[in-house]
């Protein structure tokens, strides 16, 4: 099949590319765009390691063809830190609260938390647990991930209040 | 001007961030920003992709393989089969357990999803297309996947390749599907104890087949540089040096021409210890094509072909006095090893350290017999977050103690306390031959029962049972206790080796002129945070702040030889090597300091980060000053520079232990089991980084929840593997995972340089029996003695129904 032209914004940058229409978005991001932060952990849309943000929604990028993302605005883990290089409050909270171990789920987890805290800036513990239930972690038992997201939520609310 | 006073001793200690500090992890800056470097992130010019054609059958003869259509797919470079590997003698590879395993199926397939052909293509989509087009003609053969039928007289022959080899790697084989019988202890004496016992219990307890399922699957990139003859192999290896040696032995490429690199690893849990066909095929494909070749398995391939764990069918018998003193323990295991014996155990121990099965109890006499058998299932038998078969052993004894408690109508906590090895008995010689290094079980159990208020829990349960019988609730409350003793840190070279490689480990430390340092180890982190914690050990030993120490692992060209990370051996073995290397540096530093201060070495004492003259702490040289001097001063009788390497052969294993309590509420109408409380007290000796220890405990307990409450890789009668994707294989989400309470006591290991014992696997070892005991306990008053894991809703509901409790 002949390649299709795709155009999208990734982490604030507009890109244009040619791609085989059956390319999964996760492969397009990782292999064509060299954004290897999002990972592949399953074949069945269960693990969430591939989570990216598309037009304000958390999406498992292994379940989307690149063509379906045509024209969209994508944020990946590489685009979450501040432009000056300092960590986003969620990234910092994961570091402070030991919210990661092997780090394989982390990009998807943080990208999901990034959206969750916009959907619900002050979630309860239960809301966080449900909110990240599409993202699996094999190392941490989630306890410190939940703690990290709680801490980030507090930090972000304080910041908001100050502004 | 303000004269700054020199930092106090406390400030200096704090600055080091050494032992005991909850230092934040240095790995996290990369991982939180998506700049980790895992194997699938590696991209080399001209890189090709490999993908397997796999068997749809559990047992079948291969009549023919037609590659033509596959080779016609644009972008496909080659299709390898056993016939292509035979001339290189690579169609079979040695396993870690003394067996051989087919790299690509040789004339027949022995389990579903076995590797049959390896397609190499320019991109992964072309490879996947071609996999579909390789035509394999099979003739189905009868399947055995019930271990209990493997040794029947008329059981079909599985391993034709070794059918005449009746002397296996671990002694005689008594049947064509038999692998070994391994025995330890006093069989006759134990049987006598059973015959003479006032009370005897017997139970059949199965620990189902599960899979470590790290979030990242296995994979590699092989790159053969034909010009300089050097092979580089990046991969998800828990033991990179062992991989290099094995690769050299089987490919005949000299070991100095092989470089094995483990990049960041997305969890291992035992899955990434073994050598898999994908690695061999990638190497061959790279040699053949002259291009780098990447192979990364998908999740279904991971769950069905690379490593499984457990699959132990155990029988336990305990002899005891009427008042609950255990007088003997007899055990037998039917061990289902699948189609090839690819267990990752130290070579002399075909059932690992299963003979730790006497657990935390002073049992005078015991016997273990393990029969390994072949079936039409995937090979493996890895230590899934445990030290070699310790999880199975701990599960058996902790379940059996509860079974005995029920029989005696005794409280399970009281029965445990009554039989504990006492503090003053350490070092303790177990009936099955181990020397437990240290322990204080009574103190730990006492602290745990108080923390959970055990009497109050039992009182609440009594009320719950009355209410249930009155029809006021449909929930039954279960309380599970487990008191495990682990055996980790393999191990002493005198009895622990893998393929002849002694299980020592190593550390090399080099101090730079300006007083910072690099340390390299023979282990490899898969999320345990080695770069953080090992730097802490170095910091405490040599007085250089942890933040000034780089830690490197996983590159065989630079790291000293070591046996890798699994079985909780990094801290006990490589951690010890790190401390010893640090001490060598300190010894030389002391000579340098003596020269600089113009005193005798014996007049100096070490204090945090410096040598000072005894009685005159003002006169001192810090490690930083000493480091500089070592590079810029000609010191009589001393070589310049400051570095050391230590290869540490541990004198003994270490024996971490812990007391776990778990409370569940079982809804008898749905089988839904809610974990209300989980308390874990761990004693792992000296605690290097409490934050990381706690994280390890959370993770290990969650894996225990997964195993006890749902994980299972099972097969149907015709050899189809069930539960082979994350649709069916249970990985708990944040919703089902409980919040844990952690606690600790500290009983240092007397033989370890810093007293540390290792912790990563304890929560899995203790967590599974605690959960299973809780579920069994919920039904105990209704007559249940034992029900098999996993305790998923369906099985729990069935138990309730069998007991006549459902509505
Ligand atoms: S890779 Fe698992 S959900 Fe996308
Ligand atoms: S940190 Fe390893 S999977 Fe989450």
The main pleated sheet of chain B reads as:
7 strands, mixed
- CATH architecture level-2 label of the largest domain in chain A: Roll
Number of strands of chain A: 5
**SS elements, strand count of chain B:** 36
Taking pLDDT < 50 over at least 5 consecutive residues as the criterion, the unreliable ranges of chain B are none
Which descriptor suits the 3D outline of chain A? Answer: globular
- From the N-terminal CA to the C-terminal CA of chain B, the straight-line distance is 84 Å
- The CATH topology assignment of the largest domain in chain B is Aldehyde Oxidoreductase, domain 4
The helix content of chain B is 25-40%
Relevant CATH superfamily of the largest domain in chain B: Aldehyde oxidase/xanthine dehydrogenase, molybdopterin binding domain
Name the helix and strand elements of chain A from N-terminus to C-terminus, one letter apiece.
Answer: EEHEEEHHHH
Describe the structure.
The complex is a heterodimer of chains A (about 160) and B (about 800). Chain A is an alpha+beta fold. Chain A has helices at about 25-30, 90-95, 105-120, 125-130, 145-160, and strands at about 5-10, 15-20, 50-55, 55-60, 75. Chain A has a 5-stranded mixed beta sheet with strand order 2-1-5-3-4, covered by helices on one side. In chain A, a hairpin with a 2-residue loop joins β1 and β2 (about 15-20). Chain B is α+β, with helices and mostly antiparallel strands. Chain B folds into 3 domains: about 10-35 and about 505-650, Aldehyde Oxidoreductase, domain 4 (2-Layer Sandwich), CATH 3.30.365.10; about 45-140 and about 215-265 and about 275-305, Alpha-Beta Complex (Aldehyde Oxidoreductase, domain 3), CATH 3.90.1170.50; about 310-490 and about 655-800, Aldehyde oxidase/xanthine dehydrogenase, molybdopterin binding domain (Aldehyde Oxidoreductase, domain 4, 2-Layer Sandwich). Chain B has 19 helices and 36 strands. In chain B, the strands form 11 sheets. Chain B has a 7-stranded mixed beta sheet with strand order 3-7-1-16-13-14-15, sandwiched between helices. A 5-stranded mixed beta sheet of chain B has the order 11-19-18-17-12, sandwiched between helices. The radius of gyration of chain B is 28 Å and the shape is globular. The N and C termini of chain B lie far apart (about 85 Å). The model of chain B has no long low-confidence stretch (mean pLDDT about 95). At the A-B interface, α1, α2, α3, α4 and α5 of A face α2 and α17 of B. The structure holds FE2/S2 (inorganic) cluster (2 copies). The site of one FE2/S2 (inorganic) cluster has 11 residues of chain A, from loops.
């Amino acid at each position: 099949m002949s390649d299709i032209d795709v155009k999208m914004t990734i982490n604030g940058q507009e890109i244009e590319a040619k791609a085989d229409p059956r390319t999964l978005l996760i492969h397009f991001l990782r292999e064509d765009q060299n954004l290897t932060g999002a990972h592949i952990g399953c074949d069945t849309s269960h693990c969430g390691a591939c989570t990216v943000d598309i037009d304000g929604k958390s999406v498992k990028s292994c379940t989307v063809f690149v063509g379906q993302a045509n024209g969209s605005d994508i944020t990946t883990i590489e685009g979450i830190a501040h432009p000056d290089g300092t960590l986003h409050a969620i990234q910092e909270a994961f570091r402070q609260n030991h919210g990661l171990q092997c780090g394989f789920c982390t990009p998807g987890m943080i990208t999901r938390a990034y959206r969750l805290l916009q959907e619900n800036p002050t979630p309860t513990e239960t809301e966080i647990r449900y909110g990240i239930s599409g993202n699996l972690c094999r190392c941490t038992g989630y306890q410190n991930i939940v703690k990290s997201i709680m801490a980030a939520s507090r930090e972000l609310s304080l910041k908001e209040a100050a502004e | 001007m303000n004269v700054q006073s020199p930092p106090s001793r406390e400030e200096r200690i704090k600055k080091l961030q050494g032992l005991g500090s909850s230092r934040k992890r240095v790995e996290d800056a990369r991982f939180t920003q998506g700049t980790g470097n895992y194997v699938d992130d590696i991209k080399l010019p001209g890189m090709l992709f490999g993908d397997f054609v796999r068997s749809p059958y559990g047992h079948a003869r291969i009549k023919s393989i037609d590659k033509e259509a596959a080779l016609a797919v644009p972008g496909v470079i080659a299709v390898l089969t056993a016939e292509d590997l035979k001339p290189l003698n690579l169609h079979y590879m040695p396993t870690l357990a003394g067996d051989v395993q087919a790299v690509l199926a040789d004339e027949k397939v022995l389990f579903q999803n076995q590797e049959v052909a390896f397609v190499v293509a320019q991109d992964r989509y072309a490879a996947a297309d071609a996999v579909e087009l390789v035509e394999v003609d099979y003739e189905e053969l009868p399947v055995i996947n019930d271990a209990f039928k493997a040794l029947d007289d008329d059981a079909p022959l599985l391993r034709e390749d070794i059918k005449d080899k009746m002397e296996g790697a671990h002694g005689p084989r008594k049947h064509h599907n038999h692998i070994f019988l391994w025995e330890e202890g006093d069989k006759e004496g134990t049987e006598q104890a059973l015959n003479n016992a006032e009370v005897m219990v017997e139970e059949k307890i199965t620990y189902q087949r599960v899979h470590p399922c790290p979030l990242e699957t296995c994979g590699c990139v092989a790159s053969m540089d034909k010009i300089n003859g050097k092979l580089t192999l990046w991969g998800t290896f828990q033991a990179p040096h062992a991989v290099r040696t094995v690769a050299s032995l089987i490919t005949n490429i000299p070991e100095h021409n092989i470089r094995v690199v483990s990049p960041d690893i997305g969890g291992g849990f035992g899955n990434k210890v073994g050598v898999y066909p994908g690695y061999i095929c990638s190497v061959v494909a790279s040699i053949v094509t002259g291009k780098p070749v990447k192979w990364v398995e998908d999740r279904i391939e991971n769950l069905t072909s690379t490593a499984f764990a457990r699959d132990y069918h155990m029988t336990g018998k305990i002899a005891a006095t009427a008042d609950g003193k255990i007088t003997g323990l007899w055990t037998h295991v039917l061990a289902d090893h699948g189609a090839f014996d690819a267990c990752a155990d130290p070579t002399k121990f075909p059932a690992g350290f299963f003979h730790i099965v006497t657990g935390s109890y002073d049992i005078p006499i015991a016997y273990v017999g393990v029969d390994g058998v072949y079936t039409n299932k995937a090979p493996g038998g890895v230590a899934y977050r445990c030290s070699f078969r310790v999880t199975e052993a701990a599960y058996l004894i902790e379940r059996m103690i509860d079974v005995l408690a029920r029989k005696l109508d005794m409280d399970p906590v009281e029965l445990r306390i009554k039989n504990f090895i006492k503090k003053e008995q350490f070092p303790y010689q177990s009936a099955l031959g181990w020397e437990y290094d240290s322990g204080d079980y009574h103190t730990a159990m006492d602290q745990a029962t108080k923390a959970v208020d055990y009497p109050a829990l039992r009182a609440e349960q009594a009320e719950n049972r009355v209410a249930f019988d009155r029809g006021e609730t449909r929930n039954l409350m279960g309380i599970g206790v487990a008191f495990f003793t682990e055996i980790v840190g393999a191990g002493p070279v005198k009895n622990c080796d893998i393929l002849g490689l002694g299980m020592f480990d190593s550390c090399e430390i080099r101090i730079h002129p300006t007083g910072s340092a690099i340390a390299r180890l023979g282990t490899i982190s898969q999320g345990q945070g080695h770069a953080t914690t090992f730097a802490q050990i170095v910091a405490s030993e040599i007085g250089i702040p942890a933040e000034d120490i780089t830690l490197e692992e996983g590159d065989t060209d630079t790291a000293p030889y070591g046996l890798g990370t699994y079985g909780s051996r990094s801290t006990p073995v490589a951690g010890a090597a790190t401390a010893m290397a640090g001490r060598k540096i300190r010894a030389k530093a002391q000579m340098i300091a003596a020269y600089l201060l113009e005193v005798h070495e014996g007049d100096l004492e070490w204090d945090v980060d410096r040598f000072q003259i005894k009685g005159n702490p003002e006169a001192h040289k810090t490690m930083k000053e000493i480091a500089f001097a070592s590079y810029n001063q000609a010191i009589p009788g001393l070589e310049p520079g400051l570095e050391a390497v230590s290869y540490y052969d541990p004198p003994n294993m270490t024996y971490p232990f812990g007391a776990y309590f778990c409370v569940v509420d079982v809804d008898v109408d749905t089988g839904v089991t809610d974990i209300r409380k989980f308390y874990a007290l761990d004693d792992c000796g000296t605690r290097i980084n409490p934050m990381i220890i706690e994280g390890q405990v959370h993770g290990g307990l969650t894996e225990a929840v997964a195993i006890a409450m749902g994980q299972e890789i099972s097969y149907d009668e015709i050899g189809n593997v069930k539960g082979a994707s994350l649709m069916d294989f249970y990985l708990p989400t944040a919703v089902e995972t409980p919040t844990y309470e952690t606690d600790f006591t500290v009983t240092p290991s007397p033989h370890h340089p810093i007293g540390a014992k290792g912790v990563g696997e304890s929560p899995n070892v203790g967590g599974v029996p605690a959960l299973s005991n809780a579920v069994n306990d919920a039904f105990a008053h209704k007559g249940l003695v034992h029900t098999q894991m996993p305790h998923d809703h369906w099985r729990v509901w069935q138990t309730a129904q069998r007991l006549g409790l459902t509505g």
